[in-house]
Design a protein that fits this description.
Helices cover 25% and strands 24% of the residues. With 121 residues, it is of the alpha/beta class. Strand 4 and strand 5 form a beta hairpin. It starts with 15 loop residues before the first strand and ends with a strand.
Length: 121
């Protein structure tokens, strides 16, 4: 908890709820993505949502990701790495669930395992 000193104002960037600043307007990208994909029958894990905090997509990432999942499903994929702009998503196609997500600038070693296909969305 932050102690408030009435003589010294506190800056808004020091006020946080969880990992997100209070002054932030609207939901994080991970939450928005989950909402949009839910309409397409695709779930987004809490882990993937957390990994997308602070990410600002350039395009209609949710629509393109949904289309990529459908294409992977048509080809019989079960675990796919789906690339949308500079974002990478590991998706359980069989369960229609985004298991994890990685922002291109945050990859630690650039290695993805346990996938049987790659889809460029």
């Amino acid at each position: 908890m932050i102690a408030l000193d009435p003589l010294r104002p506190i800056s808004a960037d020091r006020l946080t709820v969880g990992a997100r600043p209070v002054h932030e307007a609207g939901p994080a990208f991970g939450e928005l993505l989950a909402r949009k994909l839910f309409d397409q029958g695709i779930k987004v894990s809490a882990h993937a949502q957390r990994r997308l905090d602070g990410v600002t997509p350039r395009t209609d990432a949710a629509g393109r990701l949904g289309q990529a999942v459908a294409r992977a499903e048509q080809k019989g994929a079960t675990q796919s790495l789906i690339l949308v702009d500079d974002l990478a998503f590991v998706v359980s196609v069989r369960n229609r669930t985004v298991a994890t997500a990685v922002d291109g600038g945050r990859t630690s070693d650039g290695i993805f395992t346990n996938i049987d296909s790659v889809v460029i969305g």
